[in-house]
Amino acid sequence: MQSQVAISGFKPEKVLRYPRLDTILMVEEFIQKHSGDYSKKQVWERLPRKTMYQTFCTIIDYLEYSNKIIFDREKKLVWIWDPEGVRKLLSKGLIVK
User: Fold this and answer.
1) Is residue 48 part of a domain?
2) Domain with 67 in it: what CATH number?
3) Is residue 6, in this structure, part of any structural domain at all?
4) In terms of residue numbers, what domain contains 39?
């Protein structure tokens, strides 16, 4: 019998529809290109493809939990994930895993 381990942190509740990977990537790309320009609702309204708002909110919750985005003082979405910067720090030995 396998025991289930609770994962702390991101726990979407009452999710009717989970986002597909292509939808997550679309939202990520849009936020990267328009970092700091739009609020959550404004991003949703300007996406290249329409998506249900609940699905969009699940994506935003995940991106915030995974430290890819933050909300600034004006409640605008800001992309903060920088894998290239992390690679540079790792190569210089400034980050220890």
Assistant:
1) yes
2) 1.10.10.10
3) no
4) 21-91
Taking a C-beta distance cutoff of 8 angstroms, is the pair 35, 74 a contact? no
Q: How many domains does the chain have?
A: 1
Between 1 and 62, where is the model more confident? Answer: 62
Closest CA to 16 of 53, 55, 47: 55
According to the model, what pLDDT value does residue 5 have? 40
pTM: 0.78
**Residues of 46-85 as b/e, b for ≥16 C-beta within 10 angstroms?**
eeeeebeeebbbbbbebbeeeebbeeeeeebbebeeeeee
Give the tens place of pLDDT for each residue, 25-77: 999 999 999 999 999 999 999 999 999 999 999 999 999 999 999 999 999 99
Task: Evaluate whether residue 35 is within a structural domain.
Answer: yes
Contacts of residue 63, defined as CB under 8 A and 6 or more positions apart, other chains included, come to: 27, 28, 31, 69
